[in-house]
Amino acid sequence: MEILRTIEEMKAWSRKVREDGQTLGLVPTMGYLHEGHLSLARKSISACDRTVVSIFVNPQQFGPDEDLDNYPRALETDQRTLEPLGVDALFLPTADDMYPEGFQTYVHVEEITEKLCGKSRRELFRGVTTIVLKLFNIVQPHSAFFGEKDRQQLEVIRKMADDLNLDIEIVGLPIIREADGLAMSSRNQYLGETERKTATSLHEALQQAQQLVAQGESSAATIRARMRTIIEREGQAEVDYISVCDPNRFEELKVIRGKAMIALAVHVGKARLIDNCLIERI
Ligand code: AMP
After folding, report:
1. Are 41 and 153 in the same domain?
2. What is the CATH number of the domain that holds 239?
3. CA gyration radius, the chain
4. Which protein residues touch ligand 1 with a CB less than 6 Å away?
5. Smaller CB count within 10 Å for the chain: N or C?
6. What integer pLDDT is reported at residue 122 of this predicted model?
7. Per the domain annotation, does 7 fall within a domain?
8. pTM for the whole structure
9. What does the CA dihedral 200, 201, 206, 207 come to, rounded to 10 degrees?
10. Domain range for 263
């Protein structure tokens, strides 16, 4: 596995791959890798001739009171995890290289970034779209792989790719969970023992919602209320949002007809956890 630290090295490596007529997959991450990340890398390895994983804790997507300084990092372990998987290159740019002094260009997707996570994390999506477009331009992949755990992020990136006519296939992949249902996340690291147990209530609430819909419930308010009761039962969790919405535009629904997304963000101790599922009411 090649370790590429500068933008120029990365560009030269990917240029060579394209000149050789090979397809290139990109898996952007912030590191502290877990099975969720690895599922994206495995998919890219099976779908493309060459795979690049990037690790970059992107300062532009953290707000001033967020966890940029404490975000977990484990570069050596990440490297050792990726090597046997068959990843061809690991791109490790620095913040100074990505955002040199005088940097002033940002990508902003409008309406869909104002909903859900965009409401409480103002900087998030502008930072995400800006770094992802930069990575796309540097690596020039044929396909890029993202997790449905961050479904709003995935849709925002799809919108950017569509609106800006990018010639890159955006692939979304299912949420990988721990045995007890908790969606894997680098931020699960922040959870203490009892918080870790509380955290499973997000998945429990989603399962309960799915069950209600399967039993014929169509009222979004009823579903949200039941989910809130499950989350707040432990007393340690603080709900940021519980949403029953249209899965593409993220408009809140009153009544579920056809496809919908159920999504939630919950603070448990120092961690802000998110989860979601798609449902269909026929
Ligand atoms: P992050 O390092 O948290 O920025 O995540 C990098 C990529 O991994 C994003 O596309 C995430 O959606 C994806 N990802 C994170 N957690 C999971 C998970 N539990 N299952 C599937 N994909 C995930």
Report:
1. yes
2. 3.30.1300.10
3. 19
4. 29-30, 36-37, 39-40, 146-147, 149-150, 175-176, 183-186
5. C
6. 85
7. yes
8. 0.98
9. 80
10. 186-281
